[in-house]
Amino acid sequence: MNHTTAIIIITVIISIAAWQSRPLLERLIFYPPAVQRGQYDRLLTHGFIHANGMHLLFNMFTLYFFGRAIERFYIDKFGSLGFVAFYVLAIVVAIIPSYLRHKNNARYRSLGASGAVSAVLFAYILFAPWSTLYLFAIVPIPAIVFAIAYVGYSIWADRQHGGSINHSAHLFGAVFGVVATIIIEPSIVLYFIEKLLNPAF
Question: Which InterPro entries match (predicted)?
Fold first, then answer.
């Protein structure tokens, strides 16, 4: 079993368990005051629970297709758990800006793997900027066009401070995915530029 599939299975099991147990969900969810009290594990555990079936399906569907595509890169660089380490670190890094912004907000909560999934997706875009993504699993769109629109929308939506979706985690997860991959393999920058300028190749 590849590690992407293993992460998906674990996430699905924990998410379903949390839906069945409110105390479990409340213990795993990202809640800044609890982190301040020393429950630092919430910086990670929130990435393995989801609000509902659609939230879970969208994230795991995206992870399934793009995680498998880049998993080998991280394993080749860091060994058998390289991709798992990248994914776990992405969850934590993506939520830190939210923690700094809301650390004194007792009403703030966040959950979901979106930050890590964004990191995976944007790392993939470095390797194949013109590959076709399917928005809502239906509408075809070039990966690089999606990336630009995604970043723009995330910045705009985060400034609105509306709704329960953590757009900040989406944005910082995407940034982490790009920056970490470039640090690991600096030559990917030239490769990305070449691919970007030559979409037919």
Answer: Peptidase_S54_rhomboid_dom, Rhomboid-like_sf, Rhomboid_protease_S54
